[in-house]
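A reminder from the course coordinator: this example appears on the midterm review sheet, so study it carefully.

Given structure:
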């Protein structure tokens, strides 16, 4: 699972948290808003995963423009580059499908960003 300071890569297990603890509220090309399950707070408190660091890490990829977590209402808004990331990826992610493929896409773009400096 993702921990701050780990090597720069995302695993399918890291992505599983989305299908386990989030559901889609609204999705338009380039922007998705998710509702967090009430169980997410307990998961984050009892997990070695630094969820805030995980979100910041995802935001470093050229795929993601911004990630905003609203803890008060339990929503997560992600703005993404729909030219680099097919909106269908989020549908698969939320179904817990193709997580290996999605992790590879994220890691590919993240590595490109890191190599560019």
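Designed residues:
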């Amino acid at each position: 699972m993702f921990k701050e300071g780990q090597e720069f890569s995302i695993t399918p297990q890291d992505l599983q948290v989305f299908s386990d603890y989030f559901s889609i509220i609204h999705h338009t090309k380039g922007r998705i808003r998710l509702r967090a399950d009430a169980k997410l707070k307990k998961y984050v408190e009892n997990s070695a995963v630094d969820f805030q660091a995980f979100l910041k890490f995802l935001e470093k990829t050229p795929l993601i423009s911004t990630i905003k977590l609203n803890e008060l209402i339990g929503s997560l808004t992600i703005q993404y580059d729909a030219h680099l990331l097919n909106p269908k990826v989020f549908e698969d992610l939320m179904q817990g499908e193709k997580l290996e493929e999605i992790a590879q896409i994220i890691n590919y773009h993240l590595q490109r960003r890191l190599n560019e400096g």
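The mean pLDDT is 87. The helical segments are 12-21, 39-46, 51-59, 88-95, 99-116.
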